[in-house]
Specification:
Keywords: Cell projection, Cytoplasm, Cytoskeleton. The protein contains 8 helices and 2 strands; from the N terminus they run αββααααααα. With 261 residues, the chain is an all-alpha fold. It has a two-stranded parallel sheet with strand order 1-2.
């Protein structure tokens, strides 16, 4: 019924596979001892390359068993020739391994170069997009300024056309007050009028709302029915008649309640 919680996970407390002590009988060489260089994480568990290495070692041991004895000169020459052939095969195998390793490294280098080129292209694209955005923003600001200057010059030309002769005209107050689009009703900010100025004069300032004493006085002037709410509980409807019978509506309500349950 009890349990314990350790400070470490199973993965952190996991050790390498256990290798017990062993004793080799004299005169015997177990094949398993040829794999003593392989350890957990370095060759174990064995993959395709390790299996090929084990098979090659077996073939080499079988070849060594077929070597002739060194008892006469003819056997020595034959043994030397066989050893030269095996050495050539080992060098050829080593060259193939070097070529495979170079191909793997070349593939890795290609991937790294391709990834660097992609990152550089993305960076260049982002820089071009930022430059394009800056130029677009500058263009829009320039177009906006040109449109503003154009509107200003058009207003000046319209004003000059209305008074080509340059005569001084008196102010027509009746015309200004009859036209609701005139400067009297709708003045423009470009001629010095800002409608938001002195807007605080329209703010309602009330003694009863802005001060604590005013709030107390306002509360005292209100009737008690406003501050103290009274709720009357509803009276239950009678389900029986004067003669003592239960009404049909009451029976239906009981049946509906049972069905709902």
């Amino acid at each position: 019924t009890l349990g314990t919680q350790t400070d470490y996970r199973d993965g952190e407390a996991q050790t390498d596979p256990y290798s017990p002590e062993y004793v080799v009988p004299s005169g015997s060489v177990p094949e398993l001892l040829t794999l003593a260089t392989l350890t957990w994480g370095r060759g174990l568990p064995a993959g395709l390359a390790e299996v090929e290495m084990i098979e090659r070692a077996r073939e080499k041991r079988a070849w060594e068993a077929t070597l002739p004895a060194m008892d006469n000169a003819s056997q020595i020459a034959k043994r030397r020739k066989m050893m030269d052939d095996m050495e050539r095969k080992e060098w050829a195998f080593r060259e193939q391994e070097i070529e495979k390793l170079q191909e793997v490294r070349l593939e890795v280098l290609k991937k790294l170069l391709w990834r660097r080129e992609e990152n550089q292209n993305e960076l260049d694209t982002k820089r071009l997009y930022d430059h394009w955005q800056n130029y677009q923003k500058a263009k829009e600001e320039k177009i906006k300024k040109i449109q503003h200057d154009c509107a200003l010059m058009l207003r000046k030309l319209i004003a000059k056309r209305n008074n080509v002769m340059g005569k001084l005209e008196r102010r027509d107050i009746i015309k200004e007050y009859t036209d609701f689009a005139s400067q009297t009703y709708a003045p423009l900010s470009r001629i010095g009028y800002f409608p938001d100025n002195h807007s605080e004069c329209y703010v309602v300032k009330n003694f009863y709302l802005n001060t604590f004493a005013g709030l107390c006085e306002l509360e005292a002037s209100l009737p008690s029915s406003v501050t103290q709410v009274k709720i009357k509980a509803p009276k239950p409807k009678y389900t029986t008649t004067k003669t003592g019978f239960i009404k049909r509506s009451a029976r239906l309500e009981v049946e509906l309640a049972q069905v709902h349950q």
